[in-house]
């Protein structure tokens, strides 16, 4: 079945009142959060004109770790997030609510 048909079928089921299991909803929320982090890291890195290797050097991480973060392929620890924020010269803000999670980076002003 092509993806667009699956999506319509899924949306149709949800509109009809079908609910996904709590486990599936939790996994979707975790994936959305991971993807939000990946997007803000990529956006800030490219805004700074850095390669993954350059960001890795600034953050004290490996290029492979930066790639996994930007690809939503890892669950970062708090120490890793701290290094990443420092490397991006920004404050990392994560707001987690019951049904929503948002990730933003606030750039530090140049000295």
Q: Oligomeric status of the shown chains?
A: single chain
Question: Main sheet: which strands, in order across?
Answer: 1-2
Q: Which CATH class applies here?
A: Mainly Alpha
Number of domains: 1
CATH topology: 434 Repressor (Amino-terminal Domain)
CATH superfamily: lambda repressor-like DNA-binding domains
Q: Unreliable segments (pLDDT under 50, ≥5 consecutive)?
A: none
Kindly report the average pLDDT value: 86
- Work out the helix count: 5
> Main sheet, how many strands, which sense, barrel?
2 strands, antiparallel
Spell out the helices and strands N to C: HHHHHEE
Spatial extent as radius of gyration: 17 Å
Q: Label the CATH architecture.
A: Orthogonal Bundle
Share of β-strand residues: 5-15%
Give an account of the 3D structure.
This protein is of the alpha+beta class and 111 residues long. It has a single domain, classed as 434 Repressor (Amino-terminal Domain) (Orthogonal Bundle), CATH 1.10.260.40. Helices cover 59% and strands 13% of the residues. The protein contains five helices and two strands; from the N terminus they run H-H-H-H-H-E-E. It has helices spanning 3-15, 22-47, 52-59, 63-70, 78-87; strands at residues 90-96, 101-107. It has a two-stranded antiparallel ribbon with strand order 1-2.
Which key phrases capture this entry?
111 residues; alpha+beta; 434 Repressor (Amino-terminal Domain); 5 helices; 59% helix; Lambda_DNA-bd_dom_sf; Ribosome-binding protein aMBF1 (Putative translation factor); Cro/C1-type_HTH
